[in-house]
Specification:
By secondary structure, this protein is mainly alpha-helical. The chain has a single domain, classed as Orthogonal Bundle (Arc Repressor Mutant, subunit A). Helices cover 57% and strands 8% of the residues. The protein is built from six helices and three strands.
């Protein structure tokens, strides 16, 4: 069963926030085109926000929309995220982590050195 609003342990959300913020901070010092990891940015953002729309997620990826949409498609095919449709069948109204994606990120956050995560993003 895929999740929409399952709360993660606060410490995991704080770790995800710290990593995401650190990644954004890097852009003040190093050109964005050298630091591209849209898939990781997408996963972190969804872990923090639980679910979001396609436009916001493309912005969160810090990548051109075509690149972000490609990574969203890849992550969905790999079962790490899910997108919801409305009654009219319009796709991508809501995108969230799947249970598999949430569990894998939680396991990762449980095993990393928090100090290194905050320092290196």
């Amino acid at each position: 069963m895929d999740r929409l609003y399952i709360m993660e342990p606060d410490s995991h959300v704080e770790i995800a926030r710290s990593i995401y913020k650190s990644r954004l901070d890097r852009l003040s010092f190093i050109d964005e085109d050298l630091l591209g990891e849209p898939a990781w940015s997408i996963l972190l953002y969804l872990f923090i926000e639980n679910c979001t729309g396609i436009t916001e997620l493309c912005s969160a990826a810090n990548a051109p929309p075509s690149v972000a949409v490609r990574w969203i498609s890849i992550l969905e095919k790999r079962g790490l995220i899910v997108s919801r449709t409305n009654e009219e069948g319009l796709k991508d109204l809501e995108i969230s982590l799947s249970d598999k994606g949430a569990n894998q990120l939680s396991e990762y956050f449980s095993h990393i050195d928090v100090g290194k995560a905050q320092k290196y993003g």
